């Protein structure tokens, strides 16, 4: 499977066009994430297909349009699906569906009530109610009531004649323990009330005039002593003073670590139409709003930043796949992809305590794998050998022709991986990394540790490196890893190029960077820097053979 | 012809719409120009030969906020457009001053899209 991010032909033409226009959007979830883990939901009535616990799972759209016995909801045109049974396929998103159906005028004879209760106090800058955007179904008249402990009402809102499937209520809510939503009237007749999601806060989108600048740094260490965390930094216009610390009506007090951030970088493919490449799975770590300043800056890093806690194995694992899965599950990673070949590598696991981050980095080296979080926020562990098959220029170009077809289709995607002088501001800089001559590998066999020395046959003089990974338990495994590390160290040409950037390229991709000598060497992207300040530019660092 | 923040202002005697491309242009390693288009903005030059005191006051007040909405005729779209603008320096000349009454002439300023 090819790993290059899927974009349209128009995008491929526009991204390297001599004149181009780019755009960026930052989505920032100013939510109380602790409230999601502490909530229990109940409803006054529920349809058989309803899944009320899904109203706080952060999935904001229904998986499908579902055929029901509501009027006009059993259309046989292929647009509706039979809803799953309650215990069937839990990934199907339905949310809460009321048991009662409203009248022709949309009014429920008995108002339908959804109640969310919490065991501790929570604070948020408001609430966002996602009705059913997929079918454009929503409540027109409803009440929101927010209570502190002992049922003390602290805020309420009566909404009349709402006309949107997503309702945002901006209202600072402090120390709440219960939220009650009472639906009195639906926008259309003969419908069940339905709510897909309730967010404890708001999801703000910053673009255009509101977004002053944004920078994204992505890194991938092939053989390194760290597992780098990617980073998004963005600055927004705060002339409204909503993020000022001293503003009592502001949002500053609702900013918390681990609030999610995602970034979309787009290229204009026709006038005022942008095609975006998304990157998600970033968590707020720092924010700063200087009093008097008209801007506020935020920093968010990917999930690896949260992996500093100590890992305790839940069982004894004898292969890398099971061990990696245990680490990721315990670290709270929901979306991950571990290559099945890791099942074939034996290990006795960690003897001493390590952090999740260190544990994953050890797995990466000891299985010759890339460990990274992809653009869709999935943590991926995949051997470089397999990764390279799908990302190398030659292999990628190999998909170009579809033989046997009446009209051959030329897939021009490989052009995207060719960083030519057309798109760089200065000739790329190339420097050589230090040579590795000896590699000392530590083998953990039972309770003993033994060191083995391996030599780089291509080098007579050079540096020495020590590799001490508890997951390497045999001399044979050590020799295999040593051979790979030495081979990687021989790829010591470090390319650095300042250029226009292409959001469809990511770390791990293998590209060709043009040079004055026509060498056209392949190299692997190890760092991507994007900066958007009204226009896109950036830096790419790659590593390859001399 | 022109509305500012939803209010009609007197029709100007001079009306000129400039279309400005904001770009970052730089030469690539081959020496060719590559252009990053940031935005396309409008600049409207307005002038009145003469305005009554009341009309002048109305125009001056309309453009005094930092930003304001202008409804204008756009030559590219050939339709009425509404965009947010700010005002440049305003110049007003005196025609005469008779019996304590001043009359104004040659009022001109630009409004530039935000």
Question: How would you describe this protein?
Answer:
The complex is a heterodimer of chains A (546) and B (114). Chain A has 546 residues and is mainly β. Helix content of chain A is 12%, strand content 42%. In chain A, a hairpin with a 2-residue loop joins strand 13 and strand 14. The longest helix of chain A has 16 residues. Helix content of chain B is 9%, strand content 67%. In chain B, strands 1, 2, 3, 4, 5, 6, 7 and 8 form an eight-stranded antiparallel beta sheet that branches.
**Fraction of residues in helix of chain B:** under 10%
Query: Terminal Cα separation of chain B, in Å?
Result: 21 Å
* Separate helix tally of chain A: 7
Rg measurement of chain A, Å: 27 Å
Measured by residues with Cβ under 8 Å of the partner chain's Cβ, the largest interface is:
A-B, 20 and 17 residues
Task: List the total number of helices of chain B.
Answer: 1
Structural class of chain A: mainly beta
Reading the helices and strands of chain B in chain order gives EEEEHEEEE
Strand content of chain B: over 45%
**Mean pLDDT, all residues of chain A:** 89
For the report, how would you describe the main beta sheet of chain A? 13 strands, mixed
Q: Report the major sheet of chain B.
A: 8 strands, antiparallel
Describe the structure concisely for a colleague.
The complex is a heterodimer of chains A (546) and B (114). Chain A is mostly beta strands and 546 residues long.
Keywords:
heterodimer, A: about 550 residues, mainly beta, 6-stranded antiparallel beta sheet, 7 helices, about 10% helix, globular, B: about 110 residues
Secondary-structure topology with pairs:
The complex is a heterodimer of chains A (546) and B (114).
Chain A: H1 9-15, E1 19-31, H2 33-38, E2 39-43, E3 96-101, E4 107-130, E5 139-148, E6 152-159, E7 166-186, E8 192-195, E9 197-199, E10 201-207, E11 211-219, E12 231-237, E13 260-270, E14 273-288, E15 295-302, E16 310-311, H3 320-330, E17 336-338, E18 354-355, H4 356-366, E19 369-373, E20 379-383, H5 384-391, H6 393-398, E21 418-419, E22 429-432, E23 436-445, E24 448-455, E25 463-468, H7 475-490, E26 493-499, E27 510-513, E28 522-532, E29 536-544
Parallel strand pairs in A: 17-20, 21-27, 23-25
Antiparallel strand pairs in A: 1-10, 1-13, 2-4, 3-8, 4-7, 4-9, 5-6, 5-7, 11-12, 11-28, 12-15, 13-14, 14-15, 16-18, 19-20, 22-26, 23-24, 26-29, 27-28, 28-29
Helix pairs in contact in A: 3-4
Chain B: E1 2-4, E2 7-9, E3 14-27, E4 33-51, H1 53-62, E5 68-74, E6 79-87, E7 91-98, E8 101-113
Antiparallel strand pairs in B: 1-2, 1-5, 3-4, 4-8, 5-6, 6-8, 7-8
């Amino acid at each position: 499977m090819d790993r290059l991010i899927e974009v349209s032909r128009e995008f491929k033409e526009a991204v390297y066009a001599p004149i181009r226009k780019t755009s960026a959007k930052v989505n920032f979830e100013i939510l109380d994430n602790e409230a999601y883990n502490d909530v229990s939901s109940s409803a006054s009535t529920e349809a058989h297909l309803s899944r009320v616990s899904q109203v706080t799972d952060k999935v904001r759209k229904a998986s499908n349009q579902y055929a029901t016995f509501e009027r006009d909801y059993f259309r046989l045109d292929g647009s509706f699906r039979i809803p799953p049974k309650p215990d069937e396929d839990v990934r199907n998103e339905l949310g809460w569906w009321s048991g009662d159906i409203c009248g022709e005028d949309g009014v429920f004879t008995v108002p339908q009530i959804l109640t969310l209760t919490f065991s501790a106090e929570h604070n948020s800058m408001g609430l966002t109610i996602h009705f059913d955007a997929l079918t454009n179904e929503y409540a027109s008249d409803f009440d929101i009531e927010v209570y502190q402990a002992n049922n003390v009402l602290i805020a309420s809102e009566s909404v009349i004649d709402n006309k949107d499937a997503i309702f945002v209520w901006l209202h600072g809510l402090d120390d709440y323990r219960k939220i009650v939503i009472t639906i009195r009237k639906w926008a259309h007749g003969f419908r069940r009330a339905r709510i897909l999601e309730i967010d404890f806060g708001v999801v703000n989108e910053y673009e255009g005039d509101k977004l002053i600048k944004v920078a994204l740094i992505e890194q991938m260490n092939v053989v390194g002593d760290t597992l780098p965390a990617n980073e998004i930094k963005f600055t927004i216009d705060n002339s409204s003073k909503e993020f000022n610390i001293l503003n009592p009506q502001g949002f500053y007090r609702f900013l918390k670590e681990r609030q999610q951030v995602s970034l979309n970088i787009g290229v204009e493919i026709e006038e005022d139409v942008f095609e975006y490449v998304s990157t998600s799975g970033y968590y707020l770590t720092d924010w700063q709003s200087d009093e008097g300043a008209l801007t506020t800056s935020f920093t968010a890093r990917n999930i690896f930043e949260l992996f500093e806690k100590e890992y305790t194995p839940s069982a004894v694992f004898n292969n890398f796949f099971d061990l990696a899965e245990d680490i990721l599950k315990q670290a709270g990673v929901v979306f991950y992809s571990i290559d099945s070949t890791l099942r074939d590598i034996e290990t006795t696991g960690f003897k001493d305590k390590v952090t999740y981050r260190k544990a994953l980095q050890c797995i990466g080296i000891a299985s010759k794998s890339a460990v990274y979080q992809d653009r869709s926020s999935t943590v991926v562990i995949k051997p470089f050998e397999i990764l390279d098959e799908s990302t190398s220029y030659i292999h990628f170009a190999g998909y170009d022709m579809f033989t046997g077809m009446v009209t051959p289709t030329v897939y021009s995607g490989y052009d995207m991986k060719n960083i030519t002088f057309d798109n760089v501001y200065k000739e790329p800089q190339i420097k050589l990394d230090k040579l590795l001559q000896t590699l000392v590998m530590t083998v953990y066999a039972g309770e003993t540790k033994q060191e083995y020395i391996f030599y780089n046959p291509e080098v007579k003089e050079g540096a020495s490196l020590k590799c001490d990974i508890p997951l390497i338990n045999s001399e044979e495994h050590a020799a295999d890893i040593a051979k790979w590390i030495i081979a990687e160290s021989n790829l010591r040409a470090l390319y650095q190029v300042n250029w226009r950037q292409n959001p469809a390229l990511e770390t791990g991709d293998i590209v060709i960077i043009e040079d004055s000598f026509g060498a056209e060497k392949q190299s692997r992207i190890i760092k991507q820097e994007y900066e958007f300040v009204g226009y896109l530019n950036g830096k790419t660092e790659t590593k390859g053979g001399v | 012809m022109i509305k500012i923040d939803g209010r009609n202002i007197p029709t100007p005697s001079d009306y000129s719409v400039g279309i400005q491309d904001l770009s970052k242009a730089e030469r690539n390693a081959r020496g060719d120009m590559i252009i990053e288009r940031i935005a396309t903005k409008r600049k409207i030059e307005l002038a009145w030969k003469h305005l009554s005191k009341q009309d002048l006051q109305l125009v001056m007040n309309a453009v005094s906020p930092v930003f304001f909405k202008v409804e204008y005729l756009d030559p590219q779209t050939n339709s009425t457009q509404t965009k947010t603008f700010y005002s440049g320096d305003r110049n007003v000349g005196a025609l005469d001053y008779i019996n304590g009454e001043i009359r104004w002439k040659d009022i001109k300023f630009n409004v530039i899209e935000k």
